[in-house]
């Protein structure tokens, strides 16, 4: 810029556009780059990307049914020409608010792709009045004109806010779809779709007016509304009086419940043998509890799992071994450095491994990296097999126990999973109870269940591999099914006739022997072991013995930490406890500041080096309902000013710097809501919290 | 001219009087238009349709604005000017014909427009004129004296659903000429809806495979039956027309199935009357779902809430419908023995109108809500953010409503919005005995 440009007769301020660019994108790249060289981060990225992709696909499919209905409704809404009410789709979405955003964005994208490029998504916070709602909607329609953006350009930007009204929209729409000859029917008129994701939080009065206005334009502008309703359809009826509700015709669509969605995601993404990262029982229970008790939000659930994964992989390069591919593990081990092996040695289960070995091997394990490499590889392969089988047998077990009366092992697969990874499920009393109940199963039921098990095994067994335990189990079950089918009901006669009834009581000479023989008889009658019962017993025993081998708890295996994460201490990071956090920050700042100067011996002591607000906070804890400002200031000065002496300094001047610091700290406390200025007593503030 | 009038009367039957009045006011070429006309009558009595059609037929230049749409006066002025000048919005700038921020600007521009385009014998129609009461106070008197103020012979027609007397709280009002559009009576309704005959034919042809030929008498028969059920509940023409269309197909169904002959009107009546009765229940609701039979189903069965949110809602209900002084007795384990006072004895014989549960929700603070929540919940729960978020999401769902303003961070006050039956089924779901904790029922 030339200097002369700013020479002016009058005094003025001149604006120079500099070349400043926002660096947020750059810095963001730096943080992810910080870890990108680490092995564990690569592995994490790989795994998380595949998981999030799976989830994306799954959620799309889940909603696709409803979306398909909705889209076909939208397409047909203006099919017959005489529409005098605004067609309205009411989506009952369920209350899990955090999930809605994504769903509605998806919906918008699909509508743009499939039906109409004109979609306006209105948020309640932008629509506090009719005017702002209109501005917002018209702006969105004018600017997101979909695919033919290049031809029209973003001309919406040229308008002032006050010009964005419906007559402008009407003009714009005519320009798009009506040819010069206005009488001719427009070709391929696209609908104007208005989506309100959260109906409940809109101002009802504004919405009523909006509907009336839109309906007055209905002949020229084909509007269609999509309301997302979180509670129930009756909110819609209560919201609108007749003269408004007669302007819309409602069609209700129902979402699938979020519990169902969670179940689907868990079963298809996390609880299968393709996902290397496994959640431990405690963590898993924590997450499902948060879901069921607090928020019903699938999105939060997934974010929680993501956080856990980050925490898991942060441990170090040892976690790079968390892969279900044997070759991957081999490659990773080959590029391991000695500190990486050291990282592995720090794992808890490594110690158990060392202790169980002979002396020579112990030394080898602790010092020889090459030897350790071999051991790790062996164990990882064992773990990989274990995880694969764990999930297969888990599903088998689930089929057996899911419909038992009383659900001793839980109704859902995820409940079963949580038990299996936290303890040996076969040793629990619930499992025994299940076996007992299973031994009453009818032939048909059992047959159906066995068939289902075979179907699962069918999917997961590699046909080409050599004979394994799995294959054996598979063929055994198949044999049993054949046997079961061969059993005819006609053959239900008694098999076990070893205790042939003595058809006479002749040898009973006295009462006692008669009684005994009668008792014996009733006993033998009690258990008429039919062929089926015998077979059933065999089947259950076979299955149960297999469960005992494969459904062991993961902590019994070496290096299980690489695949399983079960550190419950992250609970505090997942569930925010704001009051405790604020109290800790003010009471013991060292926890957050991590400095040595604020270290406290006991929680009541106050150090002058602490931040001012902490000092005032701790002092105010000692006071009652009302706090005298002057006393407070004195106490404050006592602490920060070592030369200060309360007794003889009553009339001396207070250092204004200290007083300013004090005033500021008090203002901060007031801002945080701990104190409030009081009109009842002069120079006093009232305390808003109680307890120390 | 008279032919035009009779054509209008034919498209809008049963409105001969009103059309005649309009004709007298606007129909004569050599007479001056009246400055203002006020047309009023209930919803769907044909006000807007007749006036617009009337002006179109007579080829009178007019601007029509719907006041609902004019959330600011600026839009009102500018759209009137745009329509009178035939100005088309330029899509590159979006500028109106002229900028009008206030009434003075409007008058000024109107005069200019009049010089340019000649505005004598033109009309401004203001639909939904009752909105004028909520708009700026100078608008109504201004438009009533528009001719006087501008010196241009523009006449204004107001269309409204309310009596003109309702505007009297504003001063300086000139009485306009009034035309009343009364409610249609049963015969008139029958007359008008039977205009749907062609449409009904089309409808039947679209819905059934084999064509059913019917004559006007058959359709009128149906309408007679239909109106005998609905006329008492609803006089709104558009609603009746909508419902009659929906039910006509059902009326014809047995004929299409060859079960009942078209002549047998008695059997048809027997067939349709339960259907009409049930659709009387969903009158005005405009539902097109299959389960339209029970549109107002129980909220509690439909809504899926997390476990603690359910308890929070129950606690909110208890806080709303118990008085504060009963809290100690209801929620504390050792509240000491209570001596019976005269008051308590009186309370037992409380009439149902004085029950707390009948008195409407009381306001409670967040602290009280949480205290009750922790007292009714068996297991120990930490006080954390997830829980607080639940409170605000209940507010968002309008199950609770905020009774204090948003500015106070501390000591927010709430009100519970759900009714007893909803809470009862909710507490049944979580296995909680709500009656035990309501002071109205606890002594029973």
Question: Can you describe this structure?
Answer:
The complex is a heterodimer of chains A (692) and B (444). Chain A is of the alpha/beta class. Among the domains of chain A are: 77-256, Rossmann fold (3-Layer(aba) Sandwich), CATH 3.40.50.300; 258-424 and 551-576, no CATH class; 578-687, Arc Repressor Mutant, subunit A. Chain A is 55% helix and 6% strand. Chain A is built from 29 helices and ten strands. A five-stranded parallel β-sheet of chain A has the order 2-3-4-1-5, with helices on both faces. In chain A, a hairpin with a 6-residue loop joins strand 9 and strand 10. In chain A, helix 13 (326-334) runs antiparallel to helix 17 (369-401) and helix 17 (369-401) crosses helix 18. Chain A is extended and about 125 Å long. Mean pLDDT of chain A is 79; it is low at 23-28, 146-156 and 493-501. With 444 residues, chain B is of the alpha/beta class. Chain B folds into three domains: 2-181, P-loop containing nucleotide triphosphate hydrolases (Rossmann fold, 3-Layer(aba) Sandwich), CATH 3.40.50.300; 186-281; 299-437, Arc Repressor Mutant, subunit A (Orthogonal Bundle). In chain B, 47% of the residues lie in helices and 9% in strands. Chain B has helices spanning 2-11, 16-26, 47-58, 73-85, 103-117, 139-144, 146-150, 186-193, 197-207, 216-230, 237-256, 265-281, 299-302, 307-321, 327-331, 342-348, 366-376, 385-396, 420-430, and strands spanning 36-41, 61-66, 122-127, 154-160, 177-181, 363-365, 400-402, 413-416. In chain B, strands 2-3-4-1-5 form a five-stranded parallel β-sheet, with helices on both faces. In chain B, strands 6-8-7 form a three-stranded antiparallel β-sheet. The termini of chain B are far apart. In chain B, 30% of the residues are buried.
């Amino acid at each position: 810029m030339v200097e002369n440009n700013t020479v002016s007769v009058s005094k003025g301020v001149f604006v120079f556009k500099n070349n400043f660019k926002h660096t947020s994108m750059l810095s963001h790249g730096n943080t992810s780059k910080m870890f990108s060289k680490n092995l564990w981060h690569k592995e994490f990225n790989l795994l998380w990307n595949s998981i999030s992709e799976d989830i994306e696909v799954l959620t799309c499919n889940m909603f696709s049914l409803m979306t398909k209905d909705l889209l076909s409704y939208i397409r047909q809404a203006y099919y017959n020409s005489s529409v005098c009410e605004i067609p309205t789709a009411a989506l009952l979405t369920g209350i899990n608010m955090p999930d809605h955003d994504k769903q509605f964005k998806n919906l918008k994208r699909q509508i743009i792709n499939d039906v109409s490029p004109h979609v306006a998504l209105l948020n309640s916070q932008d629509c506090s009045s009719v005017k702002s709602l209109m501005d917002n909607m018209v702006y969105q329609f004018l600017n997101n004109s979909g695919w033919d953006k290049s031809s029209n350009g973003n001309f919406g930007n040229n308008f002032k806010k006050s010009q964005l009204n419906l007559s402008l929209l009407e003009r714009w729409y005519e320009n798009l779809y009506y040819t010069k000859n206005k009488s001719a029917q427009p070709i391929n008129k696209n609908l104007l779709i208005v989506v309100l994701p959260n109906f409940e939080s809109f101002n009802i009065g504004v919405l009523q007016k909006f509907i009336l206005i839109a309906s007055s334009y209905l002949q020229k502008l084909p509007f269609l509304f999509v309301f997302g309703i979180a509670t129930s359809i009756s909110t819609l009826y209560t919201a609108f009086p007749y003269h408004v509700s007669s302007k819309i015709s409602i069609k209700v669509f129902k979402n699938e419940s979020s519990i169902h969605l969670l179940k689907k995601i868990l079963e298809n993404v996390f609880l299968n043998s393709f996902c290397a990262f496994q959640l431990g029982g405690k963590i898993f229970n924590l997450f499902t509890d948060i879901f069921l008790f607090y928020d019903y939000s699938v999105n939060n659930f997934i974010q929680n799992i993501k956080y856990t994964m980050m925490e898991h992989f942060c441990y170090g390069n040892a976690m790079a071994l968390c892969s279900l591919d044997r070759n991957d593990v081999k490659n990773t081990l080959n590029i391991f450095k000695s500190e990486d092996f050291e990282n592995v040695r720090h794992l808890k289960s490594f110690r158990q491994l060392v202790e169980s070995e002979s002396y020579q091997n112990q030394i080898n394990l602790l010092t020889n990296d090459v030897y350790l490499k071999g051991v790790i590889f062996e164990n990882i392969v064992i773990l990989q097999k274990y995880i694969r089988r764990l999930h297969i047998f888990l599903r088998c077990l689930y089929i057996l126990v899911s419909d038992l009366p009383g659900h001793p092992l839980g109704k859902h697969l995820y409940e079963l999973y949580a038990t299996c990874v936290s303890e040996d499920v076969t040793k629990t009393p619930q499992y025994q109870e299940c076996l007992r109940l299973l031994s009453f199963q009818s032939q048909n039921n059992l047959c159906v269940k066995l068939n289902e098990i075979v179907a699962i095994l069918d999917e997961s067994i590699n046909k080409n591999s050599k004979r394994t335990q799995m294959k054996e189990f598979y063929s055994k079950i198949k044999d049993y099914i054949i046997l079961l089918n061969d059993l005819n009901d006609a053959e239900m006669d008694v098999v076990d006739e070893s205790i042939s009834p003595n058809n006479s009581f002749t040898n009973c000479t006295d009462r006692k022997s008669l009684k005994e023989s009668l008792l014996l008889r009733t006993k033998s009658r009690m258990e008429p072991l039919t062929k089926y019962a015998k077979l059933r017993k065999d089947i259950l025993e076979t299955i149960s013995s297999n469960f005992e081998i494969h459904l062991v708890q993961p902590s019994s295996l070496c290096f299980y930490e690489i695949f399983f994460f079960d550190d419950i201490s992250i609970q505090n990071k997942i569930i925010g406890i704001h009051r405790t956090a604020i109290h800790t920050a003010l009471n013991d700042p060292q926890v957050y500041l991590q400095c040595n100067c604020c270290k406290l011996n006991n929680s009541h002591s106050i150090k002058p080096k602490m931040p001012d607000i902490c000092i005032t906070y701790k002092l105010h804890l000692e006071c009652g309902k009302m706090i005298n400002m002057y006393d407070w200031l004195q106490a404050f000065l006592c602490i920060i000013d070592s030369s200060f002496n309360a007794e003889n300094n009553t009339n001396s001047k207070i250092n204004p710097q200290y007083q300013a610091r004090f005033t500021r700290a008090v203002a901060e406390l007031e801002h945080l809501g701990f104190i409030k200025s009081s009109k009842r007593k002069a120079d006093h503030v009232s305390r808003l919290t109680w307890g120390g | 001219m008279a032919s035009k009038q009779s054509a209008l009367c034919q498209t809008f039957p049963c409105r001969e009087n009103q059309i005649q009045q309009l004709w007298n006011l606007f129909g004569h070429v050599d007479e001056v238009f009246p400055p203002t006309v006020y047309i009023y009558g209930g919803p769907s009595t044909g006000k807007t349709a007749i006036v617009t059609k009337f002006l179109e037929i007579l080829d009178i230049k007019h601007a029509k604005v719907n006041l609902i749409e004019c959330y600011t006066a600026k839009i009102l002025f500018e759209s009137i000017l745009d329509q009178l000048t035939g100005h088309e919005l330029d899509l590159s700038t979006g500028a109106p014909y002229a900028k009008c921020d206030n009434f003075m600007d409007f008058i000024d521009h109107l005069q200019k427009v009049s010089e340019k385009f000649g505005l004598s014998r033109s009309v401004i129609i203001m639909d939904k004129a009752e909105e004028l009461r909520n708009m700026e106070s100078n608008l109504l008197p201004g438009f009533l004296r528009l001719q006087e103020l501008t010196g241009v012979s523009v006449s204004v027609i107001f269309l409204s659903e309310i009596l003109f007397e309702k505007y009297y709280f504003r001063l300086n009002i000139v009485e306009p000429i009034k035309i009343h559009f009364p409610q249609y009576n049963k015969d008139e309704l029958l007359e008008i809806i039977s205009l749907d005959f062609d449409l009904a034919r089309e409808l039947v042809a679209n819905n059934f495979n084999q064509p059913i030929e019917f004559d006007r008498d058959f359709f009128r028969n149906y309408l007679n039956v239909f109106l005998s059920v609905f006329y008492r509940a609803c006089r709104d023409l558009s609603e009746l027309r909508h419902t009659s269309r929906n039910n006509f197909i059902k009326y014809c169904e047995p004929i299409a199935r060859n079960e009942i002959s078209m002549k047998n009107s008695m059997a048809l009546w027997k067939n349709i009357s339960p259907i009409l009765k049930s659709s009387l229940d969903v009158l005005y609701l405009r539902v097109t779902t299959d389960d339209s039979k029970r549109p107002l189903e129980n909220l509690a069965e439909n809504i899926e809430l997390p476990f603690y949110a359910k308890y929070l809602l129950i606690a909110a209900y208890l806080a709303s419908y118990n008085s504060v002084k009963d809290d100690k007795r209801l929620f504390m384990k050792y509240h000491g023995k209570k001596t019976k006072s005269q008051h308590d004895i009186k309370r037992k014989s409380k009439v149902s109108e004085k029950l707390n549960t009948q008195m409407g929700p009381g306001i409670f603070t967040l602290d009280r809500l949480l205290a009750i929540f922790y007292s009714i919940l068996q297991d120990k729960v930490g006080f954390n953010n997830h829980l607080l978020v639940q409170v605000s999401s209940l507010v968002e769902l309008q199950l609770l409503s905020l009774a204090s303003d948003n500015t106070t961070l501390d000591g927010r006050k709430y009100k519970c919005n759900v009714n007893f039956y909803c809470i009862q089924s909710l507490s049944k779901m979580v296995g909680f005995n709500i009656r035990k904790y309501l002071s109205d029922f606890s002594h029973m």
